[in-house]
Design a protein that fits this description.
98 residues, 27% helix
Length: 98
C-alpha cells in the first residue's frame, strides 16, 4: 500500500452546491457548483499543475449507493481547505462562471 502523506482525497460531493454541509459539501454555497464529475476535478487539478490519481471504483461513505469515485491529489503540503477553494475557482473558470 502506498503512503498517502502528500496526497489528499477530493470527492465530487465536496463541491456539490445541492448538498448541505451534513451531506458532505465542504465549500460555501457561493463557491459550490452543481453536477460535479471526476473529470471536472481532474481538469482543474491539471490546470493548477497538481499530480493526481483517479480512483473511480470507490464510493463516498455518506452516499455509498452513488458511484462517484474520488481523486487523490498531491498538494505538496498545502492545506486541504486552500486546495479546495483553488479547485472550485478553477472549475468555475473552466465552466465559464468565473
Amino acid at each position: 500500500m502506498r503512503s498517502r502523506k502528500p496526497f489528499l482525497i477530493f470527492w465530487p460531493q465536496y463541491f456539490d452546491g445541492k448538498r448541505s454541509r451534513a451531506e458532505g459539501r465542504r465549500l460555501p454555497r457561493n463557491l459550490a457548483l452543481e453536477k460535479i464529475t471526476l473529470d471536472d476535478i481532474v481538469k482543474a487539478a491539471k490546470t493548477l499543475n497538481y499530480q493526481y490519481e483517479i480512483e473511480d471504483s470507490l464510493k463516498y461513505p455518506r452516499t455509498w449507493w452513488d458511484d462517484s469515485g474520488r481523486v487523490s491529489i498531491n498538494t505538496n503540503g498545502k492545506k486541504k481547505s486552500k486546495v479546495l477553494r483553488e479547485l472550485a475557482k478553477q472549475m468555475r473558470k473552466n465552466r465559464g462562471k468565473a
